[in-house]
Amino acid sequence: MIESDSRMRAEIGEAPGAVERQEAVLAAPLADLVAQLKRRPPRVVVTCARGSSAHAATFGKHLIERYLGIPVAAAAPSVVTVYAEQLRLEGELFLAVSQSGRSDDLVEFARAAKQGGAVTAALVNATDSPLAAACDVVLPMEAGPELSVAATKTVVASMAALLRLAALWTGDAALARGVDRLPVRLARATELDWSEPLAALRETESLVAIGRGPTLSIAREASLKLKETSNIHAEAFSGAEFLHGPVSLVSHRYPILMFMPNDEASPGLERLAADLREKGAALHVAEPGPAGPGRLPALEPDCAEADAICLLQSFYGMAVRLAELRGVDVDRPRHLNKVTRTR
User: pTM here?
Assistant: First the structure.
């Protein structure tokens, strides 16, 4: 549960309303985009994003590959902006995700993708931005103004919008029902008490976040937020990748946050969690059920992808409290600006 009066806290609380509002605003542009994609199905989807938006794009990658079987690749903007190469994207989908829509590399890559024959779509909070103008279809996040430097509600709104896209594109009724219930469940997730690891995390300088399937993007976003708001060196891994080397870092002095998925990926992470406990890890697992030693409470299972977004909402509340314990002003993280422009 969030208790501070920071701007970041207020914007976390606005996420459920943003997700509820976006349904009506996204209906027409999503229908337009999906109609194009069904007329000419892409063989590949190329995403382009930076920072927290890149984690939303990773969430979209899971959805599209899992439910549509279409490979999703993350663009390297430098191919266009630095090396001046043109990619061959005839008939493919280019999907940019950005809060501000003003990063020059995303805008330039979007223009190049369009010239290369791609159907281009921009999932943005600022619909009057250069990125929106550069793309064929504009998908509004509808998050409203986000003033806190550390993005929260725009990330949640981005993931919800991508879930809406996947539900409409696939016609999957379970995904559609999951996103319909998401605003109410996000509000409930905001109130869950994730204070259990705060004492340990207050003193740490390094941390690992682990997820898999729909929660890999959540782990990546959590690691970034811990860097931004608490100055903690945090790294994120899939549960499988963690065993290929990073597991050697495990000790009781090196905290691990694990975001448990509510789907076929959970048994593997449950086995990993048991193994890490045997190795003496300082493990904190977010999973359904009440809080307890080494356990962060989560809502009862519903739709696995929507559940992952709810885990992120609960984590954001914990991140605010942790930053305060560490003496960091979450609204003024050092060395950061709200809009970062790269090329």
Answer: 0.93
